[in-house]
Amino acid sequence: MATVELRFSPLPEHVRTARLVAAAVARRAGVDEAVLDEVRLAVGEACSRAVGLHQAGGISAPVRVALVEEEKQFSIEVGDEASHAPTGGVPGARGALDEADAEGEDEMGLAVISGLVDDVQVTADADGGLIRMSWPTLPATLLP
Fold first, then answer.
1. Prediction pTM value
2. Closest Cα to residue 106, out of 48, 29, 62, 19?
3. What is the DSSP letter of 85?
4. Which residues, given as ranges, of the chain have pLDDT below 70?
5. Distance between the two ends of the chain, CA-based, in angstroms?
6. Which secondary structure element, helix H or strand E, spans residue 4, and what is its range?
7. What pLDDT shows up at residue 108?
8. According to the model, what pLDDT value does residue 96 have?
9. Rounded CA gap, 16 and 46, in Å?
10. Per-residue three-class SS string for 5-72
11. E strand or H helix at 78, and its extent?
């Protein structure tokens, strides 16, 4: 089992690099060439979401990306350190509209990822969140 780990400061300009690295490692792992665009898009969406959560929460800790090559599958985990615990915000309180907008964007991002990846798991708590996405790999004898 080979693993590549990537950590980057929560800035939008680093998301492109994460997408490129993910596509290269996925190709090497044996993910079908026809699926690589979906891998790029899903990783870009997950990383953009993590960057947005870090920026909204004033978190300077890096976004974490783990690219895991297993025997018959390739997985990508994107982790953030933003608190996902209920905030208990009071409706109409200052900032409630911004919070609702951010939550809507978050849900939209997760919907896009779910549409791109058949095997996706999302976990979140007060210590952060993790999106785990997996794709099947081709046997080594079928690789170009």
1. 0.82
2. 48
3. S
4. 1-2, 85-105, 140-144
5. 21
6. strand 2-8
7. 82
8. 39
9. 12
10. EEEECCCHHHHHHHHHHHHHHHHHHCECHHHHHHHHHHHHHHHHHHHHHHHHCCCCCCEEEEEEECCC
11. strand 73-80
Q: Specify the pLDDT at position 3.
A: 87
Largest CA distance in the chain: 60
Q: Find out whether 79 and 104 touch, Cβ atoms under 8 Å.
A: no
Inter-residue contact 73 to 139 (CB < 8 Å): no
How much is the pLDDT for 107? Answer: 78
| Secondary structure class of 3 (helix, strand, coil) | strand
Give the C-alpha separation, 26 to 74, whole Å: 7
CA–CA gap between residue 136 and residue 32 (Å, rounded)? 8
Query: In this structure, are residues 69 and 2 in contact, taking their beta carbons and an 8 Å threshold?
Result: yes
Distance of CA 29 to the CA centre of its chain: 18
5: which 2 tokens? 């780990």
pLDDT score for 141 = 53
Q: How many whole angstroms separate alpha carbon 1 and alpha carbon 75?
A: 11
Angle at 19 between CA 18 and CA 21, to 5 degrees: 65
pLDDT of residue 50: 95
